[in-house]
Amino acid sequence: MPEAKASRSFAKASVRDSEVEGHRVLLRADLNVPLDDGEVADDTRIRASLPTIELLRDRGASIVLVSHLDRPKGPDPSLSMTPVAKRLGELLDAPVKQAPAVVGDEVTAMASELAPGEVLLLENSRFEKGETKNDPALAEALAKLADVYVNDAFGTAHRAHATTEGVAHRLPGYAGLLLEQEVGQLTAVRDDPKRPLIVVLGGAKVTDKLGVIDRFLGFAEEILIGGAMCFSFFKAEGRDTGNSLVEDEGVEAAKRVLAEAEKSDTMLELPEDLVLGKKLDPGTETRELNGVDVPEDWMGLDVGANTSANFGRRIARAGTVFWNGPMGAFEIPPFDAATRAVAEAVAAAPGHTVVGGGDSVAALQRFGLADSVDWISTGGGASLELIEGRELPGVEALQDA
Q1: Short-list 128, 166, 132, 167, CA closest to 146
Q2: Which residues are catalytic, by number?
């Protein structure tokens, strides 16, 4: 993916402009990676953090690195950062020291002994209960480990935690390269996209994407709806949905969206055909439906071939594409066809392509298309909240440029 420039609307200080030589930097990264039998199973997020780490090392800083891993309710040896430290060291081709805790006398001593270019990885930040509570005492203890703070963890920037927001009020705070790029890419889609702007939304719940729909109604040229969330729209239209997943709260929201779409300049496009199954199971009986009224005892598990082709044609003529959410139950063949088709269309699109959301990113990786997209966001909730126009605490707490 190409490096993005900072957005004109991103008015926070960048690590590019920081003076860190001879200083210790507390770097908040997003190293929340999957583990398998005590080893890192996917190092994508670690690799995404490397440019900022390498910049700081090249400029003569020593680095105290902090991240969470999963959602422990306290210290849990199975969720230690040790495998992350090992993999990071391999990628840097340099040793990464592992702290035994997040804060404490031993951690303070280890941080104070770091030489320029050396890296110390703290233990899982969520081993400390004060992390998610944004505890001032924890933030103060973290601040004492360094002279400068850099936040490169865009995926957690929407959380006001001790390592993302609290400590930023106690040290000079800068945006890391990844966070800067994420904000630049997503705000460009939100505020100043190349036209036409085509927004492709999928996934299970309308309510998860409601803020995005509201943001783009009247702004985007087209919004294409797939995934299980389309059944809330069909229910709102009075159609039969069979045993398909329907979000009850989403039906009323869908009614409002449909009414507003009628009055806007944005075309809201729903599926025209479906792939059905008796149940969500690899061996289930399936059938294609030329239409969208789902018979009793059947459930819609993917959008159909006509819809995929229609979406693909629209994506192909876009100046900008923003895609968030799969078109169906893509983890289970044969209900992966439409998600694959959309992924291929996005990958081949001549316009600028931005993809967010864990499932969409997983689909791109599964189909071997991740390198063909202009920007893949590392943030799930953070991406959506930024697109919606909401302030991110981990960004707002940084110094102004």
Answers
A1: 167
A2: 45, 205, 358, 381
